[in-house]
């Protein structure tokens, strides 16, 4: 059975950081997510950053490379290249991935897959812990509608993934390859088909997650009830989950779907554990607030990652958000810190008689 765990958090696997945080210590983040560029070759309807119009900005090559080395030196354990654009459009991405890996950081990549050429896979799969491709539908017309591209692009993406699978097995690489789909009204009937095709291609997993709404998303501004959409298509989702075999895992994120994005916690305590970097070279508290100066820790073109992260102003900003931010009104649904905030909230409000476990 697969050991993949994509529907919660792994915070308790980092007890050293958790214990240090609980004592009020300033810790290095366990995980960093980087948006190397805001440029994108797609125009996805479900993109949380569609309001930015993807004005092309890039983290300077030297800044990106130095950041990777600094993260390793300060104890960051993992890094995902993703964000509000297509990472493969950044010219220094391969060097950044290699530098991060050599610095001791587990590296991962999220991409729409159009530029995931066999050449890129040849040069990078060996340095990645995992690679995930966002595919919203197998049906070419639905794919085109949701991704904002021509329908033939789905064939190119799947071909690129097939090549990546072959390279992985040929070189016996320890990299996990996956396809991710967001459940939307337009693609709900296509979930099983995509999960089945994912297994045929030979990737390691297929995962379905709920849509996360940013307040400025134009296409879904009236919101989507992930819970209602899940229930309307429950038979298809169960059927897709049953595609799991000894070599392929089909994952429906039931746990994430179950709360419909509602928050039982009142504070965002998760910021010390996850950092997010935008294409403007600034470190932010989280990606929904990219571009808003009041949520920026500092500029990487002016200071190093450790200098910014451990600065008094950054520490104070994390404390201010933990104390003052209204997570019910100001945060997008299913934010990156959502799952760890559930855990940290319960740790903070210690119950009576804790020794009676």
What does this protein structure show overall?
This protein has a domain at 31-258: Alpha-Beta Barrel (TIM Barrel). The protein is 35% helix and 13% strand. The chain contains 13 helices and 10 strands. The two termini are 29 Å apart. The mean pLDDT is 93.
List the helices and strands and how they pair.
Elements: H1 15-22, E1 31-34, H2 61-74, E2 78-81, H3 93-102, E3 106-111, H4 118-124, E4 130-134, H5 140-147, H6 153-170, E5 176-183, H7 191-201, E6 205-210, H8 226-232, H9 234-241, E7 249-252, H10 254-258, E8 274-277, E9 282-284, E10 296-299, H11 305-309, H12 312-324, H13 338-348
Main attributes of the structure:
357 residues; alpha/beta; TIM Barrel; ten-stranded mixed beta sheet; 35% helix; 13% strand
Structure in a nutshell:
This protein has 357 residues and is α/β, with parallel strands linked by helices. The protein has helices at residues 15-22, 61-74, 93-102, 118-124, 140-147, 153-170, 191-201, 226-232, 234-241, 254-258, 305-309, 312-324, 338-348, and strands spanning 31-34, 78-81, 106-111, 130-134, 176-183, 205-210, 249-252, 274-277, 282-284, 296-299. It has 13 helices and 10 strands.
How is the biggest beta sheet arranged? 10 strands, mixed
The strand count comes to 10
Radius of gyration: 20 Å
| H and E order | HEHEHEHEHHEHEHHEHEEEHHH
CATH topology of the domain at 31-258: TIM Barrel
What overall form do the CA principal axes indicate? globular
How much helical structure, as a percent, in the residues? Answer: 25-40%
Strand line-up of the largest beta sheet: 7-6-5-4-3-2-1-8-9-10
* Structural class based on helices, strands and sheet pairing: alpha/beta
What is the straight-line distance between the termini?
29 Å
- The name of the CATH superfamily of the domain at 31-258 reads Aldolase class I
Low-confidence stretches: none
Assembly classification: single chain
